[in-house]
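Re: [help] complex structure
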Amino acid sequence: MATAQHTSSAFEQDLTDLNLKVVKLGELASRQLSACLRAMSDFQETRVDRLIERDVELDQLEAEVNDTVLNIITLRAPRSDDLRRVLASTKAAHSLERVGDYARNIAKRTKSIMATDSNNVPWDQLIEMGGMVVPMIDDVLVAYQNGDLDAAQAIRNSDVHVDKLNTDLFSLVIDQMETGAISPLVGSHLLFIAKNIERIGDFTTSLAEQVHFIETGQPVDTKRPKADRTSWLIGEG
Amino acid sequence: MNSADQSHNFATAGLPAETVGDVHVDHPRMTARNVDVFYGDKQAIDNVTLDIGEKQVISFIGPSGCGKSTFLRCLNRMNDTIDICRITGEIALDGQNIYDPKIDVVPLRARVGMVFQKPNPFPKSIFDNVAYGPRIHGIATSKDELNDIVESSLERAGLWNEVKDRLHQPGTGLSGGQQQRLCIARAIAVSPEVILMDEPCSALDPIATAKIEELIAELSSEYTIVIVTHSMQQAARVSQRTAYFHLGKLVEVGNTDQIFTNPQHEMTNNYITGRFG
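Output below.
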């Protein structure tokens, strides 16, 4: 709603800094997931180790966002859309830090699978699924910065494709385990990796919903399309 | 500048053609309809329509010069004291037009009391400050009744325990916060229906301000209160409704929580978030 600058340039700067920290956190989380996907495609364990180490940066940035929020609330007593943005920042930072956690977990499991020298691992499907989520994160950060409601809505709706890939991958991995194409250990890691990517998609839609809340002052009132059927799949025997 | 020219200027300033939000309430104590106020040729209030609810606190907020104090002073005809001030439209108290030529402003100002920015006790004793109104309006019929009115007014103003042992000392000897509560006691001693407060805490420290705000909350169960304030935190804390004025227009009115969390007009949002000017 508001386009004018705040009379207090210090307050304006505080809000700008807060925004930049959230976006920086998001960009780092996105890079972590991208690095995971590259590790899957080029089988480089050192890349995996590096991204596991970088997770601490995400934790620090989340703490910085929370400190900035405390300072702004204490010193500036924000109201209306300013207050919504400040409150949404803590939620966004938490979501993005969780994205980083999931990326780290994916990295660890990827390393474990690599150590087994297992064949028949559906890396392409995992990379396709992850490749769908990375631009969602990047786009939602732009929508967050610009307050772009249409873009946020589009990102929220696009998560259904991630759900669908997760369901397909779930069925495939179960089949592979049943036929002995992959071991139960590798299969379990794969199921968790797919689920983690699917959860990252969920956190991205949560961030898109925060954009809606900041700009309108209202929660999103429509149900999000979903296609994750993994909880409902039943075996033949 | 004539009225039409002024309206043209209002329109080009990005102001809404009509007030945003519901200007009406279910149980109005006062009603203002299409009120215009002019100081000579200068229009200070432009076509304001607003209900003031019974036993409610409503805050008027807006930048300096927006007309909020001018409009407040219309509610008990305090602007009558300014020769060049001209008011059109209608303002009613309990359905009766207060600008009817038959209305006597002295009892009107007892029914619609006022507390000012700077505490202004009379240069009299604490007792006489509070007793002054009941005496001149003939409210007390005996000395005992006058004593009761003074005591109950000071109690309701939260001042009794602090002054009961020095009622005959000068009111001007009290602290700023106590003086303001004395002025509130003086206003409620004549049993008003409405209390107007024009920035009542702007000259007070935070503790005295907190006491006045506490008092406003208590008094709102008995009285209708209209408060002009530059402190948006104060408006948010003490009032149920908030009205935002800008350039003489009532831009937006609504429930206080909605005005401060999700105002509907951009000008209101800019003001409450500190983006004004």
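The two ends of chain B are 24 Å apart (CA to CA).
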